[in-house]
Amino acid sequence: MDYKKMVDKLEEELPEKVRNRLKERMEEEDLNKEEAQKLIKNTKESYKKARFEAGEAFGVVAAQSISEPATQMTMRTYHVAGSAQGVEITQGLPRLIEVVDARKTIKTPSMDVYLEDDFNNEDGAKEVAKNIKETKMGDVASEDRVDLLNLSIEIDVNSKKLEGMDLDLEDVVGKLNKGRRKYEAEIEGEAIKIEPKDEDISVRELQRMKNKVMGKHLKGIKGISQAVVTEKKGSWMIQTLGTNLKKVLGVEGVDPTKTVSGDPREMQKVFGIEAYRNTILKEGHKTIKEQGLDVDIRHMMLVADMMTTDGEIKAIGRYGVAGEKGSVLARASFEVTVRHLTEASIKGETDELNSTVENVIINQTVPVGTGMYEVSYEPKK
Questions:
Q1: Paired residues of 229 in beta bridges
Q2: 3-state helix, strand and coil shares in percent for the chain, rounded to the nearest 5
Q3: Distance separating alpha carbons of residues 175 and 139, to the nearest angstrom
Q4: What is the distance between the alpha carbons of residues 199 and 130, in angstroms, rounded to a whole number?
Q5: CATH of 325-371 given 3.30.1330.30, 1.10.150.390, 1.10.579.10, 1.20.1440.20
Q6: 247 with 256: CB under 8 angstroms?
Q7: Which residues is 188 bridged to in the sheet?
Q8: In angstroms, what CA-CA distances link 378 with 192, 365, 375, 381?
């Protein structure tokens, strides 16, 4: 079937890029005449919806389209994902603010860890989760005591938990004795004894040492406090509380092409600025959608583009997009008015009055819609 002729007839209705993509899809999917006509019809309708009028103030429309529904968002900060032992993740308005403010530290960092085909089953997922979740000494201890007579620490270990982590007492003692330390650990029956190297240690210092020992890393990846195995549409995945994307991508069984972090800045560190843009887009749109609100994804795309257009991260706020506007009056209208006007006066800045805000301030025609054009009429002499 000659798809090329069918598509070339649409020269006046669709741009070249859209027509080329249409041809590719038709050839890839090997459509019959009826299916091809249906695809053409859907493409034409989608293209008509995607267009906007020349001079349309789509920045204002995007801001309004995101902000108005956001006021309807519930202030429920967390939701539980996964099985009975859930992972609590920030949602709703606090999460949206986190995303558009480009926060350096987010309240509940998390990851969606996807698995390679060989591990894409319940047992495989549990095995990977076991290797990812951080295990500390306190997680396997059933009881701890400070012996004030002998100035030592005794820790009873839960053998079932130890077995579940694929560890034994020798492994634990080896981990405790690793690196620079002020104590010596040894096995004593079914327990572990910690002897301080300093014989004149005080009780307070001994208590601090016990807390340090209980927080000692034994297994897994630092920073990941929970790893919940879940099944979605026949595919197994792990949702974590805490994030360490670089290390997780190196774990056997983890699919590095799909695994993502919910922290946009970490995505940028590992994969670059485009990954940061995609994370803002995905997380922002997902947060709005989870609240039952219908906002067109293209509004969020514009926000994501504005935050990353220079190849650097910019928040939507006084220290980012709004604070770096070229117009003095636009900056002054946002926040700290006097400071902006004073600094502009000192530097001798001029305002070209090219955008919406500054023209509203001085009561002049706004350069959007019909206000973009100056039409004059010269009658024939």
A1: 238
A2: 45, 15, 40
A3: 14
A4: 39
A5: 1.10.150.390
A6: no
A7: 191
A8: 98, 22, 10, 9
The pLDDT score that the predictor gives to residue 82 is 44
Sheet strands (E) in the chain: 78-81, 87-90, 110-114, 135-136, 141-147, 152-157, 183-188, 191-196, 217-219, 226-232, 235-241, 260-261
Return the closest-CA partner of residue 152 out of 189, 190, 187, 184: 184
| CATH fit for domain 135-219, picks 3.90.76, 2.60.40, 3.30.110, 2.30.30 | 3.90.76
**Better pLDDT: 16 or 267:** 267
Per-residue pLDDT at 83:
40
Dihedral over alpha carbons 122, 128, 132, 135 (to 10 degrees): 80
Asked if residues 210 and 104 have their Cβ atoms less than 8 Å apart, the reply is no
How do residues 54-80 score in pLDDT, each as one tens digit? Answer: 888 888 889 899 988 888 776 554 555
